[in-house]
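Methods — Computational structure assignment.
A single polypeptide chain was analysed. Its primary sequence is given first, followed by the predicted tertiary structure written as structure tokens.
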Amino acid sequence: MKYLINLNSIRIADVDMEDAFDFSDAFATYGEFEDGTSLTDSQLDDFTDSELGQSLIHRLAVESVC
């Protein structure tokens, strides 16, 4: 069974204003599946590298500085 990630649970790090508004160093540090199970480090890395992850991380980074 494949679980869906709760996108509202994603937390990020390395939001560097010197890198605004690219934020290429930002990455996911925490997230949960919809059942409440935490993502592993490997799953967080995979999410950060995914197209959806990159888009969400960028949006969260922009929101964090505005």
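Note: Residues 5-65 form one domain.
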